[in-house]
UniProtKB/TrEMBL annotation:
<dbReference type="InterPro" id="IPR017871">
    <property type="entry name" value="ABC_transporter-like_CS"/>
</dbReference>
<comment type="similarity">
    <text>Belongs to the ABC transporter superfamily.</text>
</comment>
<dbReference type="Pfam" id="PF00005">
    <property type="entry name" value="ABC_tran"/>
</dbReference>
<protein>
    <submittedName>
        <fullName>Zinc transport system ATP-binding protein</fullName>
    </submittedName>
</protein>
<dbReference type="InterPro" id="IPR003593">
    <property type="entry name" value="AAA+_ATPase"/>
</dbReference>
<keyword id="KW-0067">ATP-binding</keyword>
<dbReference type="GO" id="GO:0016887">
    <property type="term" value="F:ATP hydrolysis activity"/>
</dbReference>
<feature type="domain" description="ABC transporter">
    <location>
        <begin position="8"/>
        <end position="239"/>
    </location>
</feature>
<dbReference type="InterPro" id="IPR003439">
    <property type="entry name" value="ABC_transporter-like_ATP-bd"/>
</dbReference>
<dbReference type="GO" id="GO:0005524">
    <property type="term" value="F:ATP binding"/>
</dbReference>
<dbReference type="InterPro" id="IPR050153">
    <property type="entry name" value="Metal_Ion_Import_ABC"/>
</dbReference>
<dbReference type="InterPro" id="IPR027417">
    <property type="entry name" value="P-loop_NTPase"/>
</dbReference>
<keyword id="KW-0547">Nucleotide-binding</keyword>
<keyword id="KW-0813">Transport</keyword>
Length: 261
């Protein structure tokens, strides 16, 4: 049964690319309206697979997923998505604005983009602070600029749920701070789930830390610490906050920075 304030509901979901070898095993997750989350875990733990399941690009072997009370496929037009990697022929003549306009492609789309489509695309570029890049060739942009263009494409569909897979990869520190400021604004009007290897990200203004490593556990952001991270990654990790302090569970805190605060 759909809970009225739940944006995402996953119940006893199992999925594997090979029979008998699940990537995700009997996971449960509820994300309510107004909440934001950061998905963390080791490489190969199932983070990107979870996003593809939420998008309806993969089908669970067992269990259910509901987005806005619907199947992922039915809810897809209400979801914005930025993939971890982009694949584009560098010789393909497309501008940054034309990449963002792809986010306006919708069911039944046929013909030219409308004035409303172009206005929404430009608004997304402006929100990411890169409106001046609109006429530039996408292939000629830096890695960080491309990343922000892809986030703008995800925003162009005016989503209610935004899924970002490693959005800060290839972004320089200054642009990263701008991105975090933009993300905090976005969270006021939509639900945002972000996959990140930057464990310091969980100290930002998010509500849930969604730990994925075949199993799934959810923690309130304020309760996530080095011990919790160690349990997810199965080895000692140092959780560095963006104010450069360190939650450390290792035996030599002076070596990781804890002793130098």
């Amino acid at each position: 049964m759909h809970t009225s304030d739940a944006i995402i509901e996953i119940r006893e979901l199992t999925f594997g690319y090979d029979a008998g070898n699940p990537v995700l095993d009997s996971i449960n997750l509820t994300v309510k309206r107004g909440q934001s989350g950061c998905i963390v875990g080791p490489n190969g733990g199932g983070k990107s697979t979870l996003l593809r399941l939420l998008l309806g690009l993969l089908t669970p072997d067992r269990g259910t997923i509901r987005i806005f009370g619907e199947s992922p496929a039915a809810a897809r037009l209400r979801i914005g998505y930025m993939p971890q990697y982009h694949q584009l022929d560098g010789a393909f003549p497309i501008t940054a604005l034309e990449v963002v306009l792809q986010g306006r492609i919708r069911r039944g789309f046929w013909g030219w983009y409308t004035a409303a489509d172009r206005a929404a695309a430009m608004a997304s570029l402006e929100e990411m602070g890169i409106a001046s890049l609109a006429p530039r060739s996408f292939a000629a942009l830096s890695g960080g600029q491309r990343q922000r263009v892809l986030i703008a494409r995800a925003l162009a569909c005016e989503p209610q749920l935004l899924l970002l897979d490693e959005p800060t990869a290839n972004i320089d520190p200054g642009a990263e701070e701008q991105f975090y400021a933009t993300l905090n604004i976005l969270r006021r009007r939509m639900t945002v789930l972000t996959v990140s290897h930057d464990l310091g990200f969980v100290n930002r203004e998010i509500d849930l830390v969604i730990c994925v490593n075949r199993q799934l556990t959810v923690h309130q952001a304020g309760a996530f610490n080095a011990e919790t991270a160690n349990a997810v990654y199965h080895h000692e990790v140092n959780l560095i906050q963006h104010d450069h302090s360190c939650f450390c569970s290792c035996k030599h805190p002076e070596e990781c920075g804890e002793g130098r605060k």
